[in-house]
Structure formats: structure tokens, C-alpha cells
Amino acid sequence: MLTRLFNEPSLLPDMQKFGGWVDDSGSEDSKIKDEEQERCRIGDEDLDEGDVKDGSSRAQSEIAGEDDDEDVDEDDCGDDGDEDRPKKRGPKKRKMTPARLERTKVRRQKANTRERTRMHDLNSALDNLRKVVPCYSKTQKLSKIETLRLAKNYIWALSEILRNGKRPDVVSYVQTLCKGLSQPTTNLVAGCLQLNSRNFLTEQCQEGARFHVSNPSFSMHAYPYQCSRLSSTQCQSGSSAHNLRNHSFCSAYEALYTKGTSPEYNSPDYESHHSPPVCVNGNFALRQQESLSPDAERGYQYSLHYTNLHGSRSSAAHGLAYGPPGTRSAHSENLPPFHDVHVHHDRAPAYEELNAFFHN
DNA sequence: TAGGCCATCTGGTCCT
DNA sequence: AGGACCAGATGGCCTA
Predict the structure, then answer these.
(1) What assembly does the database describe for this protein (predicted)?
(2) Residue A58 lies in a domain
């Protein structure tokens, strides 16, 4: 019955998601009766015709047969014992004529279409963002919230690099990227950078936590922005300064992370992508302590907080590696299957590019 | 099966 | 009046 209200074929599949609307059983009528009773219970105050409230429940009631009765007013709900009630002021309600009903219906459909388009635009923008954050996979897309978190971390990490004029070691870099991310995403990013989260945290604990949010002291062990293909053969292939940088990074990287580590580092081949130029002009006042959303405190307590060099909070590192109890399952033992994961750090961000990007 | 994520609808608010 | 934006509700899909 209610599907008649939305007789546009293209909308029907969507409408059918609302199961109660599709079912033409007798319970529909009782539901509508309940809605009518609810209307009468609420009274005029919420059902002023001037109100925007032209929602489905009212439209449903109107279309359920009240259209035939042109004299039916909203005030007339059948409760005759309400004569003492003071007359409501304000514009008198207009009857829901079929023409008005049709206009309402069209307006709602147009609004739905606009909203759908708006959300699609938002999603395509998010897709674009997914492509420029450090880890991109066509098959294993980051969720929206994780994409935003990773993008925030990415911006912050690059801004710190530019601010300090130093290159961070890959461990610190990954840690920065993974701050506040869920465990699966942490593993994904770590996998993109060929790091097992558990192992890089172990390394971190051994070296002492150098990382601090407000005063990062990145070391120069390696430069993670130039080579995403970490195998020696990949690093040695090709020529040019780009590959030279790759090679230097890979050598340093391998020296750091391939000895005494698990075979998990022999991960699949990752395709390099160019990172977009990044602009940092001091506007990144955001602090890593600030979370993107409240649930960063609520459900994503995976952040690292290395507050000193003595590993006093190194347990937090294990929290990231294994995940806190009672939260999302940890997958630190095995990296997820990265089929077509891309890392976007082929080159160092140049200031010219940064400015160009920012002023576009 | 529960939980996470997502798309969509919907009504409210603000703005032009 | 209508559009943009937002948040809540709802149901589907997927995965552990």
C-alpha cells in the first residue's frame, strides 16, 4: 500500500529496504491507524501545516483515503471531547489536497536525489583522498573514518618533517601514520611500508621510544618516502637519482629491518605511487593528541604515546601491537592480504610542490 | 550472530 | 520556496 506513495520505479528498490512499506499485509493499515492516533495525541502543535513536517507518516495517512474527504481537517481526529481546548493560533492548516500531496512527494523525491548526489560526491572525494594517502588498495579500501584519520596523520607527519627539516626513521614515520588508527588499518599501513606492526614496535622498544608528539625527534636512519618496493632487486632496478635514493633508502631499510625479522617481510610486491605535493605552511596547528572524533578516545585507543626515551610507556606500544583487550581483534601476527596495495612515497615533498599544491 | 561499515531516507535548520 | 547541510533511523552486506 505504501509503495504506491513512491511509484517512481527507480526509487522502489531503495524504498523496499524499508521492509514495512513493501509488505502489503493487513498490519500496514493498523500501522497507519497508529500513526493517525499518534497525530491526534500529539495535537496541533507538531502538525502545523506551515511546518516543514511533510514526512511520510503524514503523507501515508493522507493517501490512505483521507484525500477523498476534502473537508477533513487536521484538527478533526475524531476526539469530540476536546472542545475545551483553545483554538490554535497561527495560519490555518491547509488541506492536503492531491495536488499538494503530489508536490510534497515530488519535493521529497528531489531532496532525496540531491542528498544521494551529495553523498556520492562526498564519497568520490573520499576515494580521491584514499588515493593520495600513503596506503592505497583497490581491493581493501580504507573505511571513511580511517581514511580521514590516516590523512590527518599523513599531513601531520609531513608537516613535522618540513618543520624539523629532518627525515624521520621509518619506524617513527609509521607510528605517526598509525596513530589513532584501528588495528587492521595499522597493520595495513605497516604492511604497505613492509613493516610488521609487532616487529616495528619491538624495534621501537629496543631502541627506546624517541618519538614524541609535541617534540618529535626523528632520526635519519632511513628515508621512507622514496622507496616502496623494498626488495633489493626492486631497489636496484632502473636508474636515475630517484632510484639512487631508493637504493640508499632500501639499503638502510634492509639494514634496519630485515635482519632478525620474520619472513613476513617478504611481502608482496607493492606498486609505488607518487605522493601528492603537500603543503605545510604552519597552519597545521593540530596536535596528534587531538582526535578526529570522539570515538578515537572511545574505541580506538591504539595510539602510541611515547613520552620519554626510557620506554616508560612502552606498554602502549604493545597495546598497538596486540590491541587492547576487549577491543577489536588484533592481527599483528599476520599481515592482511595486500593484493594491490600502494604506497605513495616515491619522492621527497618539495617546497615548491607544496606551495603549488596548497595554492591550487 | 554480533559488530562494523555503508547507503539511503527523512526531517530539521540555516541560508539565499 | 528551495537548496545545502546535518544527524538520526533503518536495513543490507560482510567478516570474525
Answers:
(1) Efficient DNA binding requires dimerization with another bHLH protein.
(2) no
